[in-house]
């Protein structure tokens, strides 16, 4: 019995040393490049190990670019930690070879299958260009990122995705979405344990995270990370490194902020950029949700509904009447109460739309008519490739009745 106790103690000690070594390697992420700052946090489960299946990484790429990665291997035991270390190394190697986000995830999926056919992993991989703020994102079954704007507005950033790594060998298809991160904006990547810790589901956990993520300036990225962790972890003694997730799931958090490269006058502005593909019908619902989040504090809810309706019409016209993808850019500028919303929808189709007079029973043809009635301004302009349809709404003070004022 004494021999068995000693053997178990040696095994536990070895597992603890292994997990500590893996935990230390998590802090060897590459330094942030000029124009981008990174803050990370990692909290293990309460099972005694210092690391589990979750991981994050930041990688310096050729041509001044940078990759950030967050992932979650199924399980919380030593085997999950070992798979995590191997998968993290593989992703790092594929990225350093110069592969794009889709190729990195496809190769990592096949690699995981060779290691263990019974376990899968979720992952989100971003290739970032610090000079422009462009983020090329590929997602493998991982939770969507969260975008925080300079004024504290937070929204789920819906990103196209494929199956988790290693789940269905031979079915690796990971589309790439492009998001532009503007100065002062922060993108939050996390594992599901961060959202669901404390018995929350994905919705209530998201509300809790949003309330902790929104307040305060964006300058103190480490302070924001600490505030987020304090919101989701049970209070108790101990330093940040000694914190433990209480619900049996590890927590990994990565914040990516676009910094000002050149000093410039601060402009009160919010932006939203997204693309809806021909084969992504659900993208319309996601676009509506993100536009509503952009206008969460707009003075009049009926104007928000108008903006969502008109944006849906413009995107729908692209998907129905062309064989092109639709790109939506939305900008809110000005001070609260007198702001202006500009929505632009671009496609590469050559044919310009024209206003029609549909009959009472017609099922289409009212898109431009709605623009003419509801928008303060609207238009269609040709581009070197394709065209852009746009509309503008001016924020109006709440009123008991009457028409929406127009310029």
From TrEMBL:
Domain PPM-type phosphatase per the UniProt entry, residue ranges: 33-258
Determine the domain of life of the protein's source: Bacteria
User: Which keywords does this chain's UniProt record carry?
Assistant: Hydrolase
Asked whether the keyword Hydrolase is assigned, the reply is yes
By what name is this protein known?
Serine/threonine-protein phosphatase
Source species, please?
Streptomyces drozdowiczii
């Amino acid at each position: 019995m004494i021999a068995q106790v000693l053997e178990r103690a040696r095994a536990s000690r070895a597992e603890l040393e292994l997990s500590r070594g893996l935990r230390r390697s998590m802090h060897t992420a590459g330094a942030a490049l000029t124009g981008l700052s990174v803050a990370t946090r990692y909290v293990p489960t309460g099972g005694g190990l210092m690391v589990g299946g979750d991981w994050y990484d930041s990688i310096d790429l050729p041509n001044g670019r940078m990759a950030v990665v967050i992932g979650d291997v199924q399980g919380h035991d030593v085997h999950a930690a070992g798979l995590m270390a191997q998968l993290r190394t593989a992703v790092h190697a594929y990225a350093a070879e110069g592969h794009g986000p889709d190729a990195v995830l496809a190769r990592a999926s096949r690699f995981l299958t060779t290691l263990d056919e019974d376990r899968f992993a979720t992952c989100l991989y971003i290739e970032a260009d610090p000079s422009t703020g462009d983020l090329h994102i590929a997602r493998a079954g991982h939770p969507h990122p969260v975008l925080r704007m300079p004024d504290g507005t937070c929204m789920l950033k819906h990103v196209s995705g494929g199956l988790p790594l290693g789940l269905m060998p031979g079915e690796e298809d990971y589309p790439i979405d492009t998001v532009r991160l503007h100065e002062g904006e922060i993108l939050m990547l996390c594992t599901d344990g961060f959202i669901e810790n404390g018995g929350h589901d994905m919705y209530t956990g998201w509300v809790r995270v949003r309330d902790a993520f929104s307040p305060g300036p964006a300058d103190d990225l480490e302070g924001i990370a600490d505030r987020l962790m304090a919101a989701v972890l049970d209070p108790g003694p101990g330093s940040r490194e000694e914190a433990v997730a209480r619900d049996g799931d590890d927590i990994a958090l990565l914040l990516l902020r676009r910094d000002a490269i050149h000093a410039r006058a601060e402009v009160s502005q919010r932006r939203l950029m997204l693309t809806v593909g021909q084969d992504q019908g659900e993208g319309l619902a996601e676009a509506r949700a993100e536009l509503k989040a952009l206008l969460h504090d707009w003075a009049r809810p009926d104007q928000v509904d108008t903006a969502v309706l008109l944006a849906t019409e413009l995107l729908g016209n692209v998907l129905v009447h062309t064989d092109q993808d639709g790109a939506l850019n939305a900008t809110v500028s000005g001070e609260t109460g007198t702001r202006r919303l500009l929505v632009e929808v671009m496609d590469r189709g050559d044919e310009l739309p024209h206003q029609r007079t549909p009959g009472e029973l017609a099922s289409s043809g009212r898109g431009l008519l709605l623009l003419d009635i509801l928008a303060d301004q609207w238009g269609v302009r040709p581009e070197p490739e394709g065209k852009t349809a746009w509309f503008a709404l001016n924020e109006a003070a709440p009123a008991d009745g009457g028409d929406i004022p127009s310029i």
